[in-house]
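Title: Prediction job returns without error message
Component: structure pipeline
Severity: low
Priority: P3
Assignee: unassigned

Description:
Job completed but the reporter wants confirmation the result is attached to the right record. Sequence as submitted:
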Amino acid sequence: MDKHLMNGLHDMKSEKSNDNHILDNFSHVIIEYHLMREFILYRNQHMSHVYVVPSHSSPFLWFGVMFVHKGLYRGIVLRFTVVIPNTYPNCEIPKLIFDAIPFHPLVNPNTGELNTSVAFNEWKSSVNKIWQIIDYSQRVFQ
């Protein structure tokens, strides 16, 4: 094969892989933007006694703490992590996992995961928002 043709094909492959890398980075930035928008939606809810912050290392992890002031669980402090699937926004329901596992019928005693299927049959990012999971967890303990 012609040397110039071979070099041209090699250059095209390099450009294509570079384009894929740029697209991957671009899509990652878009996903991070959507997650930060979700975080702003959470903050706009002005939830009392619940504080959440995205992880510094990954936008797919949010850390939170909830202070329960009513009901049977009054006086407890619950630390939790919201785990957002890497396939966000077209994903399964994000998981809310408690650090110290509270005794509750909707919390898995082995994993600390809150059963969100009661409130969310399926996850549609156009309809469902992450703040709704946090709000649901707060209502479960009141």
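Comment from assignee: result matches the submitted record. The chain is about 35% helix and 15% strand.
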